[in-house]
Design goal:
48% helix
Amino acid sequence: MIDETTKAYIAGFLDGDGSIMLQLVHRKDYKFGYQIRASTCFYQKSKYRNELKKLKDILKFGYIRDRNDGITEYTIVGKDEVKEVLEMLQPYILFKRKHVLEALKILNEIGDRRKMLKDEFLRLARLVDSYSSLNYSKKRKHFAHNVENFLNKRVGQPL
């Protein structure tokens, strides 16, 4: 169990040197051709890698990666894992409160993708598009219209 002071510290870290992302990732083997990927990242200079390792030991999820620019990332990927971390930190988040609330809203709506209908997935893809306006991303490649185009080609008629 994580004590409240530690939760507040981690929330402050996420507020300042972290990110919360929801992305559409193209997946040929997925029912709708795309995955909604949730991730939370913490960033630090690589000389603080051991401190990120301690954070990973506390949260129990994710992986650590050293980038070529002297930054180390601690990344948590996955709907359930990200949701658990965000729910735990939510009371202490200040700057990224809207990010957390919107991400949790979307994550709570994502059910079993195998049972999901195409129009429901497209609606969620549009929510991911809307969420992306909270973050700065110059590399974003996949949008809800890509999902819609994929589904229209696959099914042969508009949704």
